[in-house]
Amino acid sequence: MSNLSHSRDLAFGSFRFDPIGLRLWRDRSEVPLQAKPAAVLAYLATNAGRVVLKQELLTAVWPGAVSPAVLKVAIRAIRVALDDTTTQPRFLETCGRAGYRFRSVERIRQTAGVAAPAFLVGREPELERLRQCFAAARSARRQLVFLTGEAGIGKTAVVDRFVTASA
Question: Is pTM beyond 0.70 here?
Answer without folding.
Answer: no
